[in-house]
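Task: encode each sequence below as structure tokens.

Item 1
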Amino acid sequence: MDQSNQSFVFYESYAKGVRKLAPAEQLAVYNALIDYMFYGIEPQLEGAAEGMFLLIEPTVTAARNRHKEKQRAAQSRWSRQKSDEAVAPQPPAREESKEQTKQADNHKSAAPPTQEESRPSAPNGRPYHIGTLHNVSLNQQEHDALQKQLGDDMNAIINRYSKYKQANGFVLLRDFEALQYFLNHGTIPKGKFERNCGET
């Protein structure tokens, strides 16, 4: 088995969501994650278990891929350094400093934005309109509460919810309440979280 596939990140927020499921569904989700992340086996789930897996999978996959990229970059830098030492004499200390600065700048430009950098602006207290389809409306308090609850997973979960909302024809929802329900159940009942056109 590939060494890079011997671990993956599992956040506390996943466990909180999975524990809302029935025991058999919890076991199904855990086994599906293990089979998918370690062995590449596509899950065969249904209902709430499938919904929970779909919420978790993008972020654990992204975390694993970031770890792989860091490993590859470190190995590449080490190989280049060894090759340069074998072919040419050590450059002056001043030149080393320039090269290190260039590599640091390249790494910084390639890094994904942080939560603060990617955070949308909401002038004058108006709601954020975020998500893959910009159809998720949250006010400042709701946005901050989700950030605290979900941490690094927030953007991926909101994007998943945004696509689900569009695919199921939901337009006017109380998104904060609906997203919490979606996080725990993987679905949203028709009519449960609808809001009036005048609500913000």
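Item 2
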Amino acid sequence: MKIGLVTPYVYPMPGGVNDHVGSLYRVLRARGHDVRIITSSHGLQKASEGDVIRIGKGFSVPFNGSMGTITLSPTYLRQVRELLEREQFDVLHFHEPFVPFLSLVVLTLSKSVNIGTFHAFGGLSLSYEFGRRVMGDYANRLHGRIAVSPAARHFISRYFPSEYKIVPNGVEPSRYRNAVPISRYRDGVPNVLFVGRMEPRKGLIHLLRAIRKMQVNGEQVRLLIVGSGPGEREARRYVLTRQLNDVEFLGRVSDAEKAQLFKTADVFVSPATGRESFGIVLLEAMSSGAPVICSDIHGYRAVVRRERDGILVPPADSDALADALARVIHDPELKARLSAAGTERSELFTWERVGASVDEYYGFVIRRLADQGALPSGFSAPIPPVPGPRRRSA
């Protein structure tokens, strides 16, 4: 089939949705589909780069406790009409389909089978509360809906009730399993790793307080911090004023370096306080064999099973975080058990499995529309057959 993956965020800039889209593009092409990525530009990128098609300019705006993107163009309608006429997509797959304005314009003009994937999770959203009153027609143009977790489904269905298929995010375990640890950090000092954007909802300050408590109690531990963001100045000031030892701010790193750091970690910690729909970073850590400690929040419970694949602690509780860290660091048997269980668990989320599930859902929606005599005029591919049973991974 001819498939267009629509992302409202500027591809391939770093971010969970764009990482998802890029991996899905790769897997769907490997499964024999003709795939394009439809996105916007941000700066001096070319309008078209191979299978990446750019329409409009993206601008960063605060959203859901982080930074999102809206795209604008004075000639959206003409550009999108020309794109859809030229490409003749059978399926258009929108990621966060209600983010203005690229997805909304493409969805309005689409004559294809329209699938939406919802990635976000949060509390009360004023934007969605307002949006459900004006976006009902857009929502009705979606023929199928995917949520990346029960948390994401719960969030979006509050505003747009419907049937949502849960298809999780994916990971490439071999990238992390085969990484080589960084030798300079293998000196006997336990390495605690944080990977994430430095913003309040990621909870770095609570991890820093936990590290301080451990060091005050005489524990020797090193904290490696990967990422950047608006909270970096506060984090650095806390480290300086509390005179914390062995805390390194590594900034943004390459994917290869990130895999090495996961492999180097004795413990990976994600102390997010909420608004996490899934937790790809947990899967990356588990794939590497790093024991995981994370907040006991809705989105993370879709990945980590309590005391089986990792340790869950109350969010924003630095004392509980410090206790959990000491427990893992000083209990080799627990550390080995969490490492083995996490590695096994991550194999259930490979991108090959996730891509197959998405592909099968396309087929389900297309067959349902065909049975109803409701296939859009732009669909011209053969109707996908009902798939045979797929063997579950160990």
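Check on item 2: The first strand starts at residue 2 and ends at 6. The chain has two domains: 2-170+350-371, 173-348.
End of task.
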